[in-house]
Each structure stands twice: as C-alpha cells, then as structure tokens.
Amino acid sequence: MTRSKIALLAGLGSLVLSGCANVTAAPQAAPPQSAEEALRPYYATLDTNLPQANAGAQLDTSRAISRIAFGSCNHQNRHQTIWSTIAAHNPELFLMIGDNVYGDFGYRGEADLGTFTHAYQLQGSHPEFIAFRNQVPMLASWDDHDFGPNDSGGAFAFRERSEQLFESFWRSSDAVRARPGIYDSVMIGPEGERVQLIILDTRFFRDPLVSLPYTAERRPLGHYGITDSPDATMLGAAIMA
To answer: Is the pLDDT of residue 100 over 70?
Structure first.
C-alpha cells in the first residue's frame, strides 16, 4: 500500500471517529412508574365509544326533595322487573350504591375489561331500566363487582379503565371526570330545606386487605384479617381532604 493511500485511510478514519464523537444519543423516555401509566397508551388505542345509559330525568338541585330511594346488587343478566316496583313509590331521586352491574361475571383478568363493557351495554338496553331512568333522576357509586374483581381495591391495575366505563355509563359530571375516583358531593334544595349527598368511593383508593390462609369455614370477616397499620386507608387522602 502506498503512503498516499495510507494517509487517505487515516484521514477517513479520523473523520469517521470525529463524526461518531459528535453524535448525541437520543434521550431515553423515563420508564413507567406504575402499571396504570404503562397501560395508558394501550387504552388510548381502544374504542372511545363507551356504553352510556339513556340520558333520563335530570335532577333539579334547586328544588327540595323528601323521597330518596336506593339500591344495589343489580345483575345485568337477570330480570329487571324491580324497576317498575320502585317507580310506583314515586322517588324523587334514586341512588345506585354499588354492584350496579356485575362486570366481573366471566372476567378472566383481561386489561380491556371487555366483560365490564358488555355488562354496561346489556344493562343500558333493558326497557325497564330505560323507563325508570326516564322517570327518576339517578346518582351512582360503585362497589367491587362494577369496579373490578371480587373484593378489589386500589391495587387493581386496570382501575383507570374501570373508572372510564363507570363515568361514561352513569354520565358523571365534569367535576367527577376531572379527578381520580368517582366520589362526589351534591347539594339539593333551597336554604332551610337543603340536603347534601356525599357519595363515597370505597374502592379506587383502598389499600390492600390483609389476607388470611384459606379455610373451608368462613370467618366473620371472610378470609381477611384486621390491619394494624395507622396509615391504611379506605377512602384515600383526596376524599378525606
């Protein structure tokens, strides 16, 4: 090899190394800090046309009320004749206080909560339920079976998707949709006849339960123990604030 070729190769090598030295590595995105954060891009790809109950009667918060009905544990797969019985008592407001559908019926841990979506779709299609909503204003909270698996709480990784489904179906207010969880407070009636409804969320923020070894005999508290942690919470700091 001639000296000129050697000089040329050395020059090219220096140029390449110089170029490599000046390349700045692309900044790496911070890893997700939780399962919920990791799932948000996936949920953004899912259908945003979530189930909704019919609009129904609107609550007039300026008018005093005296008849409030409430109920829970409504399975979407079963008959819905109870609604006409409740309506016959002319409640001015009905509170759904949990297990309003059984979304975990057939659930196998899928992140998209397909069984929950189906449960809301089916519930919203029942003529008796539609007729009742057209007559009586409704407010709602949830319990475990319309939040997630049995006895689930704040550790449920898919709780944000569950919240989206709940808030869509029950047509939650903008204030509820703007914050984590589905808790709310509603003032009804004029001064002197005013009622405040505080709708709690005992699932979204709840710390994990203390599990006990399984036995065939059911304990008074189920298969759970009593926590002695002073920091354990049922409602979370946001609701208690």
So the answer is: yes
